[in-house]
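Lab notebook, bench 4. Still working through the backlog of constructs that have no structural model yet. Next entry is a single chain of 116 residues. Request: give me the structure tokens for it.
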Amino acid sequence: VGCGALHVMWADLGEVRTLAVKDTWRGRRVGHAMLTGLVARARELELGKVFCLTFEVDFFRRHGFELIEETPVAPEVFAELLRSHDDGVAEFLELAHVKQNTLGNSRMLLTPPPTP
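Model written out:
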């Protein structure tokens, strides 16, 4: 009925990827449950930041994500990420070779509190 993934990009940075729910299951909190689980896993892995590329801004905002304009990584991390051949990484870094609006036109960031 749904899918989603947490991609660890760096020691303290993860990406929520391909979070989707079948239309007939929307409104039943399936997406909420999956995102909550992915963020919990990010906490377990001690990821300090989790981002997403999305068209569903309101959904992610309800879960604590905020819109970002800048790339929220240190310059040395940015340089390392530039070496990636992953289109999701390229979109996150706003590289020109990525076709616009294929992965989501809004970048959002969550800084999850540490696991108690």
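Notes after review: The chain has four helices and five strands. The beta strands are 2-10, 13-21, 49-54, 66-67, 106-110. Flag for follow-up if needed.
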